[in-house]
Amino acid sequence: MTTVAPDTDTDTDTDTALPARPIDPARFTDESTYRHTRRPVELASTLIPDAYSAPEFFALERERVFTTSWVAVGCVSDVDRPGACVVVDVAGRSIFITRNRHGVLRGFHNVCRHRATKLLDNDARDVCHRGRIRCPYHNWTYDTDGACLGTPLFEGSDIPAGQESIFDTSVAKGFDRADYGLLTVAVESWGFLLFVNLSPDPTPLATQLGDLPRRFADYRLDEWLPQRRRTYDVAANYKLVGENFMEYYHLPWVHPELNEVSKFSDHYRWQGTGMYTGMCTTPVSRNTDAGGWDGLRPLSSLGEQDADSGRFVWLFPSTALVVLPNHAFVLFSRPVGPNRTVETAVLLSHPESLEGPGAADGLEQLDKFWDLVNRQDLKIVERVQEGIENPAYRGGRMCFRFEEPLHRFQNMVIDKMVGIDRVPEGDEDTMTRMFPDP
After folding, report:
1. What angle do CA 37, 419, 52 make, to 5 degrees?
2. pTM higher than the cut 0.90
3. Partners of residue 190 on adjacent β-strands
């Protein structure tokens, strides 16, 4: 957990009598702005309200957080063969991911090198014309490795017979199509997740994931497949969505149904090294009449502890990952404004868990239960967004027992905003009971 020794400044930024401060964007990249959140969690205040509401903070955050991090954007199965593709948005930039003819993942900015036309529609699932990507404007064409093939003279270009010379760019001065391939984006995968990184020289994905691949090794996550998808439009900042996911403080009041199958006494902090926050509930409680996490067969490869635990991980910066013995639930949170987030929820399972009678009913029950829980969460985080935009609110106080993961996450955001590149360490005991017996 990132901590800085308490300072001696007595200004708490919580004096509600103060007038609203004018926004100075330079303040958002200044370490001193975050001095109260940098304190140890038992003394810390929350991240500044402007981080959730100011367009100026949002613009800087896109550049300093989302263009420098590995961002989970979809599922590996979305690009399961050469030529399959998925179009995603990262930091307001359209990106597409595909596989070349050898099956290797490739990522590109969704921009033609001629005059910047968007190449593929948002709902595209396949590149066109036998693995060739054709610009709809002037027919410039690229292969799945991003090489420019023609401008637009190539096989099947539909140039009228006898007019080829008109479109021949080989005579253009100082032009070599080899210099005009698609603009590449780093893409990697882990388990069933696809990640992109917009940095021209990104650190390996493994550095950001830390010890998660080892901790999830027995789950064989690369074999899991999506079974259900839903989309939610949320009137709240993406960090509020994440911070709500990271704590169980709110369960009795927001999630009466979930609270029945996810008991306070069964929660643990499950935090190793990496750009994530981790929690665990064990043992996994049985369903109630309102639903729960049963319904599919557990995976047979799991050890004793994994077979009776639910893992809850927030992958920095914007993805919730829940893995249980028989299914997984992922929330890809895409920030589209300081107070608006679009979520894509995906329910996944291993093929082994779908064997046997009752699997279809089990999937339906799990889908409805997660939809109920998620809608309850979104309703409350939208209320938090309304409150955090009130200028009278200057920040709150962390509740140390429940909010260590929030403190860890907020300090990761601060690191990025002020230009610090580091991966937080884990706890000495990576399975710490959050609510010890009295």
Report:
1. 50
2. no
3. 193
